[in-house]
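Can anyone check this?
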Amino acid sequence: MPLGLFAQNSVSGTVKEQATGSPLPGVNVIVKNTTNGVTSNFDGEFTINNLKRGDVLVFSYVGFKALEVAYTGQSSINVSLEEATNVLDEVVLVGYGSSTKKDMTGAVETVTTKDFNGGNIASPEQLLAGKTAGLQVTPPSGAPGSGASIKIRGGTSSLSAGNDPLIVVDGVPLDQSGRGALNYINSNDIESFTVLKDASAAAIYGSRATSGVILITTKSGSAKAPLKFNFNSYVSWGENTDDVGVLSSDQFRNVVNQFGNPQQIAILGDANTDWQDQIYETAFTNNQNITVTKGFAHSSLRASVGYMNQEGTLKKSYFERTSANIKYIHRLL
């Protein structure tokens, strides 16, 4: 077998912007499906080692389309990246109106319905978990209706201010004083999340935004659209996978008979109750939503009603939510 097949090589090159020919600093150059990678320097130059024939180099940079180039033994690879106009022109809603990503100066990321997590979604933050860098969603305690902990870039280090980001729903700040306040929003009504990650958010929303801001935009109808009805429903069940390890009734009586005093031994009975079986049960969750949309020449209407009943595995624990949403938009032009 030829030794060249296993040889480890290196390649250098330059990354430029296709439109202007200017060098691009900070471009990620990574061997596909590995952790071997480098970034281009101020002049757009890079050198990457430990390559073998057949490797694929992936060039990626914010605001540009990713480019893949196969390594076939060449000594240099020069590439030009094309601007991803569809990403830069995406409209982002902020506190004082709307803007496009290419005009924004702060750290902003938008997650829309096509990116949401699927499955049995009981609370809105589950749609967002793992979908944006720097956003940490810690799962709740497991009790029905309990909210997850949300932190943007670790939250603040203030002793007096909270670490939770400010949540704004359709321009209205959400009262987060209650337990799991975000759970009272029907996940089926949410169109997108916009996460403002840096300190510039405080310039828009004040001191409440020191830990970041999450903007929630709810769904709306489309103009000139026909009348449409939509109904969705799901049912799920859950149960504890394991019990707390404790002594059985006979084992407990043996321990008391061996190490207990006469008074403790005298009150031993002959019951054989498994109390974990008595307090835990199989939990069922059901969620139904019905939506009506209608578009007119210069306006649109969307109305929805939802009902969710989430039981806990601990008996008598549950979370019940009935929601209604009506959104009417009239365009003057």
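Reply from J.R.: I decoded it. Confidence is low (pLDDT under 50) at residues 1-6.
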